[in-house]
Amino acid sequence: MHPAPVRYTPSQRDDGVAIDASTQADPRSTSRENDLRHTLAERVAKWTEGVDHLTTAIPNLSFHRREAPTQPMDCMVEPSFGLVVQGAKRMIQSGDAYIYDANRFLITSLDLPGSTQVIEASREKPYLGLGLKLDFRVMAELMAQVAPDHDEAPAGRGLVVGDMTEPLYDALNRLLALLDDPNAIAVLGPYVEREIYYRLLTSDQGTRLRQIASAGSQGNRVSRAIRWLRTHYDESLRVDDLAAQVQMSSSTFHHHFRQLTGMSPLQYQKWIRLNEARRLMLSERLDAASASFRVGYASPTQFNREYSRLFGNSPRRDIDSLRGGTDVVLSIAATY
């Protein structure tokens, strides 16, 4: 069974130190699984030598490296598969903490705001991770051919941790091996990715993926609403209109949106607005009033109040603090 998320307390958010999250080989693993896990770590280590982040030649595949634990960093996690091949990481989403390592993968089936933190890393044994963005069009094609291996599960949060398997380790290794043969990527890459999708659909978290990818499902409709919010965050939001747009009643839309994201549509929009304003002030050096208008606020006073509530400080003090730090996230994107 995969570990259930645990409630997260404010003191845990700020400690910035490693916790007990073993990345040793699972005693239930076969020797081949352990070899495949070790090979994955070697491949990612080779490509990330000297860099924190690498967008690879394989579309949708990225690598990440850290040589020390990090403070929590706000991010927007895209629909993706994430695996820590060495070290451990914690994802916090709406008060729930998900810890994953080389034995457990993280699937995000929606664009979800949250916070990530590397909790196990050192110069001698750096944190190494990979992320693969998911294409739900391909997922839907495979679903028509693959019978579910597990009984239908009740709908839950759009972020889950699942157990790695030998076939999944194997497929990931073959995908990463293509980086050494660039001419083969365009020909063989899509086939290996389809196999990875198949392994995920038949994993212990396959039912969650089906709930989101199924055309007409509640999860799919919420996903469409989220895509609209990501694009139109600076516009006035009438939740009833958005619910109608995705063909749901207002009450059903509210229920499923909160169930999948842990927040209401208005809270989701507010998170996007405030984080984009933070980015504008930090990277484009806009003042707070200009940034607030740019992201859709009509009142700088309301903006300052909501900004302070989310980030724990006024816009000016928060930006001054971030500029003095060394571990700043300038965009709302996932880092695996």
From TrEMBL:
It holds the Pfam family HTH_18. InterPro entries: Homeodomain-like_sf (IPR009057), HTH_AraC (IPR018060), Tscrpt_reg_HTH_AraC_N (IPR009594). Residues 223-321 form the HTH araC/xylS-type domain. Keywords: Transcription, Transcription regulation. Residues 1-36 are annotated as: Disordered. SMART domains: HTH_ARAC. The keyword Transcription regulation applies. It comes from the Bacteria. This is AraC family transcriptional regulator. It comes from Burkholderia theae.
